[in-house]
Amino acid sequence: MDVLPSEGYLTESESPDGNREIEEQISDFLMKIGSENYLLECQSYDDGSMAIRIAEYAFLVARQFAIWDIGHAMIPMPRFSIIYVKKTDKTPKSTTITFTFPDGQRVDYKAENIILVDFTKEYIVEKRLFPYIPFYVARYEKEYMETG
């Protein structure tokens, strides 16, 4: 397993008062296991824009590993998963991004989400899910900040 650098990019968003803001977006965790790239994104709450952000991050990751020549490009999309630190009744069990093309093709890019409140620290260690440890610790951030 290799941890890869997470690339950032600038995006424009609209603030609640209608002003435009430029923000830097960086994916949370990118790793390579064998020949597969994995994009893990930590999310603390249900967010309607998560699927589109994953599509943006995944494309940036894929572009790093793309192979192209005149008239053709091979763009290897990474596997992805969203790690939800907290859970509500709206927290999705999976995320699907459907790409539609002008010729009518549709491709579903789907992954199961990880919901950390369903995992104990013992389970994480037993199953050797070590990349989840920083996300597991993050769920205690609020408590730490209140007592720290």
Name some characteristics of this structure.
39% strand, two-stranded antiparallel sheet, alpha+beta, 148 residues, 5-stranded mixed beta sheet
Mean pLDDT: 81
Order of helices and strands: EEEEEHEEEEEEHHH
Query: Could you tell me the strand content as a percent range?
Result: 35-45%
Q: Please, how many helices?
A: 4
Shape: globular
Please give the alpha-carbon distance between the first and last residues.
34 Å
Low-confidence stretches: none
Tell me the Rg in angstroms: 17 Å
Largest sheet: 5 strands, mixed
- Count of domain modules: 1
> Which strand order does the major sheet show?
1-4-5-8-11
Kindly name the structural category. Answer: alpha+beta
Percentage of residues assigned to helices: 10-25%
Number of strands: 11
Structural commentary:
Helices cover 23% and strands 39% of the residues. With 148 residues, it is of the alpha+beta class. It has one domain (2-115). The strands form four sheets. It has a five-stranded mixed beta sheet with strand order 1-4-5-8-11, with helices on one face. A two-stranded antiparallel ribbon has the order 2-3. Strands 6-7 form a two-stranded antiparallel sheet. It is globular, with a radius of gyration of 17 Å. The relative contact order is 0.14.
Question: Can you describe this structure in just a few lines?
Answer:
23% of the residues lie in helices and 39% in strands. With 148 residues, it is α+β, with helices and mostly antiparallel strands. The model has no long low-confidence stretch (mean pLDDT 81).
